[in-house]
Amino acid sequence: MTIRLDGKQTAANIKANLAERVTRLKARGIEPGLGTLLVGQDAGSVKYVAGKHADCAEIGVHSIRHELPADAGFDDIAAVVREMNEDPACTGYIVQLPLPKGVDENAIIDLIDPAKDADGMHPYNLGELVLHVRGDITTPLPCTPRGVIELLGAYDIDLNGKDVCVLGRGITIGRTIGLMLTRRAVNATVTLCHTGTRDVADHMRRADVIVAAMGSAGFVKPDMIKDGAILLDVGVSRVFDEEAGRWRVRGDVDKACYDKAYAYSPNPGGVGPMTRAMLLANVVEMAERQLGR
């Protein structure tokens, strides 16, 4: 029987554990705080940031909101980043992307204090991930790749020796998940496919695990996967449903693949909730590290 990797329930279990850890931290005089910087009013970004603050309220983490108008320039955004770097109430924070056209996003990310990088995407933290093939990592980890690994772990799916095909080379997961999957603790073999890859379907058919992060609705078809494959559906597209007369979120994996798979993550309801849970985990872990200073 195919296993449905329920990201909502798994994330709920993680948040329950985090809530207990937050209570213990507060008892020792440390209150974790998550900061967000939202520039403009992009509907998707507004909703995503609101969800993060709702998650904070659920587990007892303090919320720190910063908002700037859509015409904010580099200096305005940089000033808020520096403010959060210096704010002792802000344990960790994120700058919601995308930023307005003309603003160098990488330059803004470079300004983030790596110790407060709740997304785990600062160059320093990515460099630490590259260097630490073995043992524990004490720097924040990228949320979406970590969410994928935690979701599989919740269902006792061992990736040791598995061939993993990653579709898409975006920084959020495509370029970073290979760093985590090839660590000794996971020990998988990773192939990264992108627009320059010849015969992507051939790579997919040979893979034990497919991580689809292209943003191409229904790209992964049943004839592209082998029997018993594990499917992680990360890509998000908005597709108009003619029958319902409204837009719907669709993932990269065609639902017709499910019967052929050993396990799959639904989209929505799979990796998305796990990404949000890992953001909270990063912030709580940052606060816990303060105890060791």
Structure description:
Strand 5 (163-167), helix 7 (177-181) and strand 6 form a beta-alpha-beta unit. The protein is built from 9 helices and 11 strands. The termini are far apart. The chain has a 6-stranded parallel beta sheet. A 3-stranded parallel beta sheet has the order 3-2-4, with helices on both faces. Strands 9-10 form a two-stranded antiparallel sheet. By secondary structure, it is an alpha/beta fold. The protein has 2 domains: 27-114, 3-Layer(aba) Sandwich (Rossmann fold); 143-273, Rossmann fold (3-Layer(aba) Sandwich), CATH 3.40.50.720. The mean pLDDT is 96. It has helices at 7-27, 43-59, 74-86, 105-111, 123-131, 143-154, 177-181, 200-206, 271-290; strands at 3-4, 33-39, 62-68, 92-95, 163-167, 189-193, 209-212, 230-233, 237-241, 246-250, 263-264. It is globular, with a radius of gyration of 19 Å. One of its GO terms (molecular function) is methenyltetrahydrofolate cyclohydrolase activity.
CATH fold category name of the largest domain:
Rossmann fold
What is the tally of helical segments? 9
CATH architecture type of the largest domain: 3-Layer(aba) Sandwich
What structural class should be given to the helix and strand makeup? alpha/beta
Report the CATH superfamily of the largest domain.
NAD(P)-binding Rossmann-like Domain
Which quaternary structure do these chains form? Answer: single chain
The percentage of residues in β strands lies in 15-25%
Indicate the overall shape: globular
In whole angstroms, the N-to-C terminal distance is: 49 Å
Instruction: Output the radius of gyration.
Output: 19 Å
Number of strands: 11
Whole-number tally of structural domains: 2
Order of helices and strands: EHEHEHEHHHEHEHEEEEEH
Strand order of the largest sheet: 1-11-8-7-5-6
Helix content: 25-40%
